[in-house]
Amino acid sequence: MKFLHTSDWHLGRSFHRVNLLGAQAAFIDHLVTTVREHEVDAVLVAGDVYDRAVPPLPAVALYDQALHRLADLGVPTVMISGNHDSARRLGVGAGLIGRAGIHLRTDPAGCADPVVLADVHGDVALYGLPYLEPALVKDAFGAGKVSHEAVLGSAMDRIRADLAGRAPGTRSVVLAHAFVTGGQASDSERDIAVGGVEAVPAGVFDGVDYAALGHLHGCQTINERVRYSGSPLAYSFSEADHRKTMWVVELGPEGEIVSAERVDTPVPRALARIRGPLEELLSESAYSAYEECWLEATLTDPVRPEDPMARLAARFPHTLSLAFDPEGRTEEGGGSYAQRLKGRSDQEIAEDFVAHVRGGGFTDEAERAVLQGAFDDVRVDDGRQETHR
C-alpha cells in the first residue's frame, strides 16, 4: 500500500509580508497531480493545516477546494490537527466529510479509532493522533505526568491495544504532530516545550509500521519507520537550504518499508542569505545569482550605511529582511537584537531579562520553576480558551 505523507501546510501564512496564498494553491495543484501520477492509496496530512486557529477566509476557501479535489480523486485522506490549528474548528463536520473519504482526526479521545483500508495482503489501520497539549489531556489519558512523552506514550498504548485486538498481520500507520528527539528545528516552528522539555523519543512509536510526523518544517528521517515530511513551502530564512518535498512511502505485505521517495514541491522563489559590507554586496559579480531571490541581507559595515534598504533593493528587488552585524564589534552582547535572541527559548530570554533588571541571576531552581510554570500556564490557558470558544 502506497501513501503520500505531507504536513504543515500553514494555509494563510505569509513570508515577511509576502502573501503566499498563490504559492499554497500551486502546492495543492501539485499534491493532487502527485496523488494521481503516483497512484497512491491514501494521503496523510500530519497537522498544521492552517497557520492559526482562526484562519483568514481565503485560506479557508483554499482548504475547502483541497478537500473537494481530494474527495473527487476517490483516494482516502487522513488529516490531523496540529498545534497551530483549532482542533474544534478543523473537525467541524468530520462525520459528514468522512463519508466522502476525508477522515479528520482532531479529537484526542478518538486516537485509537483507525481508518481501516485493505489491499490484497490484508488490512492497514491508519491512526490519527492530533497534537496533544499535555496539561489538557493528561487526566483523560491517565498519563503519569504533564509532559509530551507521557501523553504521547499513553495515547500510543491505546493504539497498540487496539492493534493487538485486530486480525493477525494487520499493518499500522500513525499520524502524529510532535517534536521527536533527533529532529532538526527551524525558526518558523512554534515552541511547544512543557517544563522546558519539548522532545519525545522516537521509541514512543514502537509497535507500528510507519509514523508520519508533522511539526518540524524540514523533511527528515528519524529512522526508517519514523519520518517528517516537512512543510511544502519555506516559512523562514532558516529554511533557505531546505529541499521542500513530500514522502511517497510504500508499505509491504509484512509491514516492511518497501520504498520511501521524496517528491519535490513547487518553489515560488528561491531563498538566499548574504552578508558583507553594503558596497561589496552592491558591486561584486559573485552576488548576481541572488538578484531574483527572496533575500535576507546582513550588513557588516562598521558604521550603518545611509538608506541601505533602498540601495539593496535597486540590485536585489526581492530583499525582505535586513540585519546589521558590524565587523569588529567588541562591546558585550554584540550583534542585532534578533541575532542575540536567535535559538533561545522564551524561558531563556525571560531569565536573561530578570537577571538584567535585578542585577543577578536566579538564586535557586525554585525561582526558575516558577517562571517556567508561568509560561506553561499561559500556553495551556490559550489552548483551553480555544477549546471553549
Give the SSE map.
Elements: E1 2-6, E2 14-15, E3 18-19, H1 21-37, E4 42-46, H2 57-73, E5 77-80, H3 87-90, H4 94-98, E6 102-105, E7 115-119, E8 122-129, H5 134-141, H6 148-164, E9 171-177, E10 179-180, E11 199-200, E12 210-214, E13 220-223, E14 226-228, E15 245-251, E16 257-264, E17 271-276, H7 278-283, E18 294-299, H8 308-315, E19 319-324, H9 337-341, H10 346-358, H11 365-388
Parallel strand pairs: 1-4, 4-5, 5-6, 8-9, 9-12, 10-11, 12-14, 17-18, 18-19
Antiparallel strand pairs: 1-15, 2-3, 7-8, 13-14, 15-16
Helix pairs in contact: 1-2, 5-6, 10-11
Walk me through this protein's architecture.
With 389 residues, the protein is an alpha/beta fold. The protein contains 11 helices and 19 strands. The chain has a 6-stranded mixed sheet. A 6-stranded mixed sheet has the order 7-8-9-12-14-13, covered by helices on one side. It is globular.
In short, what is this structure?
With 389 residues, this protein is of the alpha/beta class. Helix content is 32%, strand content 23%.
Task: Throw out a few tags for this protein.
single chain; alpha/beta; six-stranded mixed β-sheet; 11 helices
Number-wise, the strands total 19
Strand content: 15-25%
Query: What is the overall number of helices?
Result: 11
How would you classify the helix and strand content by structural class?
Answer: alpha/beta
Q: Give the fraction of residues assigned to helices.
A: 25-40%
Going across the biggest sheet, name each strand in turn: 6-5-4-1-15-16
Elements, N to C (H/E): EEEHEHEHHEEEHHEEEEEEEEEHEHEHHH
Largest β-sheet summary:
6 strands, mixed
- Sequence stretches where pLDDT stays below 50 over 5 or more residues: none
